[in-house]
Design a protein that fits this description.
Elements lengths: L1 H20 L16 H14 L12 H10 L6 H9 L3
Helix pairs in contact: 2-4
């Protein structure tokens, strides 16, 4: 009985090891998207604080895509400087 359990566990370990060896390598983790230059951030910061403040996190780990979406939906209200920044990035 014990011998059967040991063989079963050994076989399972061999199968798992062989299966992992055949898996393709995983891609590197996605990096945080570029948030623009200091000049670009300065141009859009007042608009972000005015229209998208609820999306700004205290820990600095902001959801850049949510803020971008917010700026785009408030496009008619944001400053010309921030509109130019968005346009320069194809937004």
């Amino acid at each position: 009985m014990i011998r059967t359990c040991v063989y079963t566990i050994a076989l399972a370990l061999i199968v798992v090891t062989a299966a992992r060896a055949q898996m393709p390598p995983q891609p590197p983790p996605v990096k945080t998207p570029m948030q623009g230059t200091d000049q670009e951030r300065t141009a859009c910061h007042p608009d972000v604080m005015r229209y998208c403040k609820t999306l700004v996190r205290e820990d600095g780990q902001d959801d850049v895509f949510a803020i971008l979406s917010c700026l785009q939906s408030n496009r008619t209200k944001i400053s010309n400087a921030c509109q130019q920044v968005l346009a320069s990035h194809g937004q």
